[in-house]
Amino acid sequence: MATFFDTPIEFLKGVGPQRAELIQKELRLFTFGDFIQHYPFRYEDRTKFYQVLEVNETMPYVQLKGKISHREVIGTGFKKRLTALFTDETGELELVWFQGIQWVLDKIKPGIEYMVFGKPNRFGNKLSIAHPEIELVSNKNDVGGFLQPVYSITEKLRARHIDSKFIGKCQQEILKGAQSHIRETLPSPILSSLKLINKKDALLHIHFPQNQEWLIAAQSRLKFEELFYIQLRLIKMKLVRQEKFKGQVFNDTAMLTQFYKEHLPFPLTEAQKRVIREIYADLKSGKQMNRLLQGDVGSGKTIVGFICMLICVGSGKQAALMAPTEILAQQHYANLRKYAEKMNVTIALLTGSTKKAVRNVLHESLQNGELKILVGTHALLEDEVKFNKLGLAVIDEQHRFGVAQRSRLWQKNTDVYPHVLVMTATPIPRTLAMTLYGDLEISVIDELPKGRKPILTMHRFDSNRLMINGFIKKQIEEGRQIYIVYPLIEESEKLDLKHLMDGYESIARAFPEVPISIVHGRMKPKDKDYEMARFVKGETKIMVATTVIEVGVDVPNASVMIIENAERFGLSQLHQLRGRVGRGAEQSYCILITDYKLGAESRERMQTMVRTNNGFEIAETDLKLRGPGDLMGTQQSGALDLLIADLAKDGHLLEQAREVATSVLKDDPDLIKPENRMIKIQVESVKKAAVNWSRIS
Ligand code: ADP
Ligand code: MG
After folding, report:
1. What's the confidence (pLDDT) of residue 398?
2. Which ligand sits closest to the CA of 301?
3. What is the pLDDT of residue 670?
4. Which atom of ligand 1 is nearest to the CA of 295?
5. What are the tens digits of pLDDT across the range 349-361?
6. Last residue of some domain: 561, 592, 612?
7. Which residues span the domain enclosing 576?
8. CATH at 347
9. pLDDT at residue 620, rounded to an integer
10. How far is the CA of 194 from the centre of ligand 2 (A)?
11. Angle of the 199-207 helix axis to the 164-178 helix axis, nearest 10
């Protein structure tokens, strides 16, 4: 049944088929319902008039009242422009037009009072406003004394005279017709307990706020609603999963006890112990576990993963550990094998470069259940890899794997889905985690093993290179190893590769006696691994590389991380890279090298790195600086395309939304109670809109 809000926008007064097509293409708005949710991204305060004396070029826009004199057309062709002098009692500034000059000349008469609106700029000691909006003061009434909405539009739309004002007029038109069609979407007990305004008022005041208070009320209401329905969906998914999918029960802890007593290589941190308890509670619960384990670089996630696998193997099942790169898989394998062999647990490695003959044997022992732990890359996902009884899949460094891959691991045991533990070293701010992984349980290791010396981070400029080389030399003399990392991003791959090679050559010239490794993404995996292995063994002292070494690689003897063109990396990535050092007993250093000239945001990134080693603090700053869409691993998620809420700013509302959604579903999981009817209707209507939220399907 089509409703008012399903009406295609071409039927909107003043739009028509051609404009509608353009709006659909440019803004992805198809129906009245879509359109009304194209909220303003800011508002202009038209209640205030400034005086020329108060105006300066840092103001986003100003509104002035005054008279015009001295109109003058200057220049020819390209440079032709109309200037006019604008004066009030306090001073004067210049108005400039580059286009529509004749029209302005006809319309603007000297000696009459106008109101002028626009963005002030400064040229030399002269203030000016280019292409101001200009109107007779006597017309002021129909502009209204409100906050004016400003809508995002595209250049193509602007060229066809579909500007912010036009969108505003359309919104007015829709709102006029919509009054009897706007359906409340939040039950009144929720509205009243959280002091939220109703939907009708919210839609009106989000577009045409009567004043600041109404605007804030409208924003809170709509943000809450958006976050509430996201959380409701995620929590529902979790409940459904917990109900529908039985989990294998692991409760034989004999092996675990033996490992704790005889082979634990170091005392676990309190955080590690707590997390293991959380996971163990899942593993014996009879419900299928889907848990995200967050922990800063070096917080010791590997041993936690191993202990969980031991619980699984101890209960007669098999476990898998999947890593995103060959190097990492090898390293995990080398580490875990030490533990596994002590416990007489069979373990093997499977990657893309595993030989066919080895592979065949491996497949066989996996299928007959002899092999208990399989470590590898996404080669694990291939169809020929069949487990006898897969009980637990551990995935390291989640952001490298897609959701689809996660679900393919499930399919490795279709009798009873395996438990899944996703480990990530990219700390995610709480608000993001709640939205991206709101359907997962979350555990956090928020403590580093004792005795770690915090890494000292410095920000240096290209001009300090001699000093830096001196520092490298001293560290090598003391037996340490050094990483030097260059950015490599796809768009400028060739140039980046050249920088890397140039860097390598100048390092080789500066340290002719020192064996150096080089690793980058264009090398054959075999060569890469060979170089990496030489560095791990200590045969080479300097590793010149791109970010391929970013994830997980562990060389305790490496104590210096030098990052070239550090301004080109995001905060999370810088932090990841820094985490490659500081793994041994020695003092470690991270040196960020940038150009002397730096933008404000880059400067703040460098300062943040120098100030703190705390990954969560860094992630929060990253979120504030860049917004959720740009954070590592969130790019293609789609889960973050929010209409109005902002995960960097609306943490409080998000917590509230999650709390309320949880309590609603706890009380009435299928939303059948009459007081939740409204919620049920909204959930269904969103489902119809066919947003694919289910990330495990
Ligand atoms: P990440 O969380 O980055 O994967 P790892 O698991 O690689 O960290 O651990 C980093 C280093 O710290 C490893 O060398 C590991 O053996 C060591 N480690 C882990 N837990 C502890 C602990 N509780 N006490 C001392 N060292 C530990
Ligand atoms: Mg790790």
Report:
1. 60
2. 1
3. 92
4. 2
5. 999 889 999 999 9
6. 612
7. 456-612
8. 3.40.50.300
9. 85
10. 42
11. 160
Confidence of residue 421 (pLDDT cuts 50, 70, 90): very high
Do 396 and 308 lie in a common domain? yes
**Tokens at residue 402, please?**
């897609």
352-361, 381-390, 548-557, 572-581: range with lowest mean pLDDT? 548-557
Mutate to test the pocket of ligand 1, among 259, 263, 266 (most ligand atoms within 8 A of CB): 266
Classify 206 in phi/psi space as left (phi over 0), alpha (psi -120 to 50) or beta. alpha
Domains in the chain, number: 3
Q: Is 299 in the pocket of ligand 1 (CB under 6 A)?
A: yes
**Same domain assignment for residues 468 and 598:** yes
Backbone angles phi, psi at 89, to 5 degrees: -65, -20
- Best of 259, 293, 296, 299 for a ligand 1 pocket test (most atoms within 8 Å of beta carbon): 299
Q: Tokens 């917080």 map to which residue? A: 299
pLDDT in tens, 452-509: 888 999 999 988 999 999 999 999 999 999 999 998 765 567 777 778 888 899 999 9
263 and 410 within one domain:
yes
Domain boundary among 595, 612, 629: 612
Ligand nearest the Cα atom of residue 580: 1
Q: Does residue 658 surpass a pLDDT of 90?
A: yes
Q: Are strands 481-485 and 318-322 parallel, antiparallel or unpaired?
A: unpaired
Q: Which ligand lies nearest the alpha carbon of 554?
A: 1
* Statement to judge: residues 273 and 406 lie in one domain: yes
Q: Is the shortest distance between the CB of 381 and ligand 1 below 6 Å?
A: no
306 and 387 inside one domain: yes
Token output for 231: 């959380």
Q: What is the CATH number of the domain that holds 116?
A: 2.40.50.140
Residue 395 sits in the same domain as residue 475: no
Q: Is 298 in the pocket of ligand 1 (CB under 6 A)?
A: yes
SS (H, E, C) 30-99: CEHHHHHCCCCCEEEECCCCECHHHCCCCCCCEEEEEEEEEEEEECCHHHCEEEEEEEECCEEEEEEECC
pLDDT digits (tens, 9 = 90+) for 186-232: 999 999 999 999 999 999 999 999 888 999 999 999 999 999 999 99
Interacting residues of 88 by C-beta distance below 8 A, sequence separation 6+: 51, 52, 64, 65, 66, 67
**Which ligand neighbours the alpha carbon of 552 most closely?**
2
pLDDT-derived band at 172, boundaries 50, 70, 90: very high
Do 230 and 222 contact (CB within 8 A), yes or no?
no
Output the CA 401–ligand 2 centroid distance in Å: 15
Instruction: Tell me, yes or no, whether 599 and 519 share the same domain.
Output: yes
Q: Would you say the CB of residue 623 lies under 6 angstroms from ligand 1?
A: no
Q: Residue 120: CB within 6 Å of ligand 1?
A: no
